[in-house]
Amino acid sequence: MKKRALISEIMTKDVITLNHKDDLETAERLFKSNRIRHIPVVSGEQIIGMLSYTDLLRISFADAVEDDETSVDTVVYNMFTIEQVMAKKLTSVSSNTTIKEVAEILAEKEFHALPVVDNDKLVGIVTTTDLINYLINQY
Length: 139
Fold this sequence. Notes:
The chain is of the alpha+beta class and 139 residues long. It is 31% helix and 20% strand.
């Protein structure tokens, strides 16, 4: 196992994002159609928050709809904005952070995803799944 391997080796570079003006119905469609659990929220090129699928589940019955269905009861979603539901106090890492350092942050803070930011620009996202897959590939 490489001790100084960088997070840029395992992070997702082609990041799906939400604009802070998007609605929660759009967010749910992205979560389900891409089978992901975390989406960075941006304003322009600046990351301003992170929305998780769990955040949606807290305010709705999103999990009651089958994954292949596209219709959602949007009554609850119309009561909230993405900015009201997303996490705002983010911890981020740069692409030259080591995998070990990222694993320590995720374990200590109990996060499941971290945005990867270089020069105030979102360049990737790293999740606990990325770390688990990295470990699996080491054996």
